[in-house]
Amino acid sequence: MIEAMPIVSASTGLHEILALLTSQLHPDANHKEDLVFLKDVFSEKSIGYLMKIHEKLKQYEKHSPTPVLHSASCLAEDLAEELQNGPLEDDEQELLLLLSTPHLKAVLSAHDTVAQKKFDPVLPPLPDDLDDDLEEESVKIVRLVKNKEPLGATIRRDEATGAVIVARIMRGGAADRSGLVHVGDELREVNGNLITHKRPDEISQILSQSQGSITLKIIPAVADDDKMKESKVYIRALFDYTPFEDKATPCQEAGLPFKRGDVLQVVSQEDPTWWQAKRVGDCNLRAALIPSVQFQERRLRYRMKMGSVSAPISPKAPTSSLRRSFRYRKDRQGSPGEAHTPDANHTEFLIYEEVAQYFPRPGERPRLITLIGSLGARIAELKQKVIAENLRRYGLAVPHTTRARKSHEREGVEYHFISKAAFEADIQNGKFIEYGEYKENLYGTSLDSIHRVLDQNKVCLVDVQPEALKTLRTAEFKPYVIFVRPRIGDGQGKQFGSSSSLSVAATDDDLQEMKQSAEQMDECYGHWVDYVLVKEDPASALAELQVVLEKVQMEPQWVPASWVRR
Asked: Which CDD domains match (predicted)?
């Protein structure tokens, strides 16, 4: 039976009320077993400990002072400035002097410092005489609601203990959104089924096939708040990745497929092998796994060593030579150069490039527009048409040559005419982005000629061999690279359009050569390309290029992060 409770005041603590209630429990013949159980529960030390915590939290919630504002110093300065703007009455003059005293300024500054701090409650210490069973590992029951999406967590087997451990939590997934499952938690049961003796792949299958409510029995790990901070690193993928073809991934369903050129936000690099990332522009907020730079480079080196596959690598700019011919046969452009076997110990692998958004600002020099083209693209004609339609906005980098000036040509308009000795001296001084020889005369495009156009606040268009991108891809030029390639059909004897009203018949061999040229250039230099323009005919290609040029100057673009860092 329970005797009449003593009168308690509003200030009586919850743990004190619990103690009074326990003291009033006296077993009788009818309810002896129930009352003994109830008394044992109320007498439990852990219950008393929790009640003390509850009381401290309620006391803090009730009496914690809340600052009215955090910027008293700023308000005082604003008020003093306002008073100085007009004639002052006696009391206003006194207030201004008061606000100017160092003592009051110090008090207001101290107020702001205290107001911005967070004062957490001091909880009572854990009693030293707790029962041994309370010091044993605690078990947490977690119930998650999951539809057709993955759970958003991967698991592993601890080699030392054999325990099933949560290896990673995918940002934005069901487990992450719940806030109840953490890396390092030990998983004991799934929907009431003991899983300690099952293989991780069997457990993953159970989790992936479960729909609706999933109940997990977990032994929590020690939380580390710092590990849950989301990263803000953005990268551009320089290769294609399909997780279902990757046998090394810890969970294929948790992998993020991407294409070369996709921009990814890396939200976690805690795992040195598998990063968590989201594709920029995706509506899906759940992060997924991608191979880290270190892991991808390590296995590419291994594959190259074993000779199983050719790894994607960054092309090396060829050594400049006075006898190099590069683009003067307009209808037969040179292909990007023959592939060479790289040194596996000094290879620059194409994996990711850190990027940031670049916002064009008024008064800033325009970005350099760089055109590269495969065989048959006729990019020089396309460039000339863009410039001819808007001479005030677009400019041409005037090339240098050692040939004699013709009667109708003007210095600095068609070419800069210089001597061979001067040309060779400029080569040695690194003034050319590319150069070559044609009919025993030297031709080249200089860095100075590009600067002259950009300094006039004009958009400079250059068409170069792709090897020149190695020189141009700097924060100084911030080049936007457009790859122009002709559309190759399957029909035999296809008429391939030119700038005139006539058409040049392209043979099957010509078409095959154009196709191979485009594929080879895409394979070797596609990671540097910002836009691919497939040229159907001159008119549509010109219209498409003009739209792209407008966007480049008006809209934010993803560029290498080093270009926007100060």
From this structure: PDZ_MPP3-MPP4-MPP7-like
DSSP assignment of 113-165 equals HHHTS-----PPPPPTT--GGGGSPP-EEEEEEE-SS--SEEEEE-TTT--EE
- Tell me the pairing of strands 441-446 and 400-401: antiparallel
Residue type, 26: H
The encoded tokens of residue 34 equal 């129930």
- What domains sit in the chain, N to C, each tagged with a CATH number? 14-63 (no CATH), 72-115 (no CATH), 136-226 (2.30.42.10), 363-399+444-557 (3.40.50.300)
- What is the overall mean pLDDT for the chain? 78
Taking only the tens place, the pLDDT of each residue in 342-398 is 344 446 788 999 999 998 887 788 999 999 998 888 888 899 899 988 889 999 889
Closest CA to 49 of 121, 120, 126: 126
Global model pTM greater than 0.85: no
The DSSP letter of residue 25 is B
Q: Which residues, including other chains, have CB under 8 Å from residue 360's CB and lie 6 or more apart?
A: 366, 367, 552, 553, 554, 555, 556
Coil, strand or helix: which one is 173?
A: coil
Residues 397-420: pLDDT tens digits? Answer: 899 999 999 989 888 888 999 999
**Of residues 436, 478, 446, 397, the one with CA closest to residue 318:** 436
